[in-house]
Structure formats: C-alpha cells, structure tokens
Amino acid sequence: MNKIVIPLFREFIALGLIGLFFYLFLFVDFQDLSFNIPSELLTVNTMFLSILLEAIPFILLGVFVSALIQTYVSEDLIKRALPRNAILALLPAALLGAIFPICECAIVPIVRRLMKKGMPLHIGVVFLVGAPILNPVVFASTYYAFSSELHIAYARMGLAFVLSIVIGFIIYLLFKNSNQLKWTKEDVVVEGNTNQEEKVGKLKSTLFHASDEFFEMGKFLIMGALIASLFQTFLDRTLLTELGTNEFLSPALMMGFGYILSLCSEADAFVAASFGGTFTAGSLLAFLVYGPMLDLKNTIMLFAFFKARFVAAFILVVTIVVYISIIIYQFLFL
C-alpha cells in the first residue's frame, strides 16, 4: 500500500509546488507587498528565471531525443554505425555534431542515453563538447552577432571541430572506454527487456521515458541556474574589464565568465559581442568555445550522472586544451 501512496503523495506535492510557482509568477507583484525586497534578490530572481526559461525548451528537446533513442535505437545499430577503430571513429562523431541543433542544455541526457546504449566513452565526449557549438543554429547566431568580425564565427567552428577530436582522443587515452556512468549497462539491459513498450506502444513509451528524464534532469538544471544567477548578481565585473586586454589573463577570465554565466550556446554570441570593446578577440573566442563545452549547470548534471573521477578529469582536460589552443591561435592569427 505504501508503495502506491508515497509516490502519489510526492506527485501531488510536486504538482502543488509547480502550481504555486506559476500563480506567484503570473498574479503576484512583489513590489506591491508591504515589505521591501532587496534589489540584489530581485536581480537573482530575474537572472534565475531567464536562465531557466532559456534552458527548458532545449532540455525538453534533449529528453525527447533521449527518449526516442531509448525506444527506437538498439545497441547493435550504434555498433554498426561507428567504425571499429577507436581513433577513426572520432571524425564521424565530430561531424555528427554539425547536424543536430542541440545546445549544451540538452546534450547531457542525449549523450548519457547513447552511452547506455553502447556508444564508447570517448565518442560520447566528442559529441558532448562538439555538438553544442558545431550545429547550424549556433553558427548562424555567431555569424550575425559578429557580422563585422566574421573571422570569429569561422574560428569558433574550426576550433570546436578540432578541439572536440583532441579532447575525445585524450579521454580515450585516460579511460580506455571504461564505464564511467553511475548506472551500469546491466541496469539498462534489464530496463530494455521489460515488456512495457509492448504493452503501451512505442509512442507512449517514448512519452514515459521523456517525462521521467525531464523531471530527473530538471532538478539539476534548477540547482545550476540558481548558482549561476547568484554569481551573475554578485560578481564584480569591473575587475574583469580592467584585465580584459591582457593576452594571457583575458582568455582565462572569459573562460571563467562563460562557465559562470551558463548561457545557452544559441544566444551566447550576442553577449560575447557586447564585450568586443573591452576584451581581446582571443578572449572572446575563449568565451564562445569554453562556455558551451563546460558551464556551471552542465557540471552539476555531469556529476549527477557520471562518476566523479571522470567528471574531474573531463573538466581539467577541457580547460587546459581550450586555454592552450586559444593562446596558440592568438599567437598565430591575431
């Protein structure tokens, strides 16, 4: 009896909280209340909602693609589609990222599902860091935002393509495709062997998987959005502008800025363009490349679904590779 009552009770609480949130958001004007709310908290609230509302559509896209993969894509299909040679498989994985309009908000559930279906770890990493930048929507937004400096748009795509392969290769050397998910393949095999899909049909099964994954991913998105909004509100940006012209410090600062802001890759080019008069072109590239590969909300999701040792190594590899590549790019082309 408790097995039925407790989940229903949790569902009612969740629905009640969602209803309360929308009621307060749509019908309550906090400025009309008798007590004064500090302006910083109002800024945190605005930032939090903007990040959340910006990310939710792409999270929905990601979980539906993930659910379709769970329902329709078999392990044998993935094994047949990828080259057997681990090194040769890096190139098609990077090219695959250029096809799908998926940002960093949606990529984590998709990569996790593909890995559970049998995709090698290093191929999943290539897709994880490459797809949020290489897709056509991001290129179009970057091209438009930097219409007077088109070399930045082309450099962003070129660096993302090359670095995704380099990062995937390094991860392959470090982990040799060992299982770094917090759920084992056996769990997925058991899940896949249930008769649920046959009973309810593939369409309903897809919707069930998508809803479960959305609520599972959503709680970590909310945590990341809240932390990112706190940083955006209380970070002293005058220090950043003072150091923005240093060729070695400014890329590191903008990488940190991209990590903290946690902007969607479809929109971050316009934010980067606003810093054009303060920061070097190399540091703007660092912001545009590093942020979609790794940001605050993504990190929380990664720690939730991957082993901590892998996530720590992934963060270190991405940070070092991106920073060194930006320094080299500045020396050769700028």
Automatic annotation (TrEMBL):
Coiled coil: none annotated. It is a multi-pass membrane protein. The keyword Transmembrane applies. It is found in: Cell membrane. The chain crosses the membrane at residues 12-28, 48-73, 85-111, 123-146, 153-175, 217-235, 269-290, 310-332. Keywords: Cell membrane, Membrane, Transmembrane, Transmembrane helix. The keyword Transmembrane helix applies. InterPro entries: DUF318, UPF0718. Belongs to the UPF0718 family. This is Permease. It comes from Metabacillus endolithicus. The lineage of its organism: Bacteria, Bacillati, Bacillota, Bacilli, Bacillales.
